[in-house]
């Protein structure tokens, strides 16, 4: 999450090797999930899909163990949907994300639901459905705030700001971008690699629509907003 994919790969590979050696199936599934997201950060989409498919299969084996198995299976569906979206397969992405959504709603799994809704917001945004994107981002924000998860909160805020930018609510978008950046600085993360192009396009549109002084003031306001 902090962008050091080399360290992540080393740790995840060691964890996966040990988990398989001692038949620690939970740790194996989690390591597979992590490998998929690590490769996604690198832009290696096919490898990310392969690891994530393995994680899905493993979590299906664990689904009947307890509620955590069902929760993490829903997360695996959401992650695989994220990968499909990045690959441009919006039909498959929608199917996977809606599977995750239904499972998380049935489990009342609010933390997982916050991330799935954020990805569904990204999907709607890419399809030009800003009303639906806005609704998904807002619900994601509420759930992330309830859990105090600043990473999810920052990602949902960035999505919300991108919709505001598309609607030419430029000053408010600059404030929300500023708020998201402040949260990322607090926890030491950066824009997810797969979202950087969309993020920079939206931020660039906001900068172009405002004077440098207005943009700086709005961004500073956003950075000082309370959680």
Describe this structure in words.
It is built from eleven helices and no strands. The protein has helices at residues 5-21, 25-42, 45-62, 67-86, 90-107, 110-126, 130-147, 150-166, 170-187, 196-209, 212-223. The mean pLDDT is 94. With 227 residues, the protein is mainly α. The radius of gyration is 18 Å and the shape is globular.
Give a brief outline of the structure.
The protein has 227 residues and is mainly alpha-helical. Helices cover 82% and strands 0% of the residues.
Please specify the SSE layout and strand pairing.
Elements: H1 5-21, H2 25-42, H3 45-62, H4 67-86, H5 90-107, H6 110-126, H7 130-147, H8 150-166, H9 170-187, H10 196-209, H11 212-223
Basic shape: globular
By DSSP (H or I, 4+ residues per run), the number of helices equals: 11
Compute the CA-based radius of gyration. Answer: 18 Å
What is the ordering of alpha helices and beta strands? HHHHHHHHHHH
Main sheet specs: none
Question: What structural class do the secondary elements suggest?
Answer: mainly alpha
DSSP E strands, number: 0
Proportion of residues in β-strands = under 5%
Distance between the termini: 21 Å
Mean pLDDT: 94
Helical fraction equals over 70%
Pick out the low-confidence regions.
none
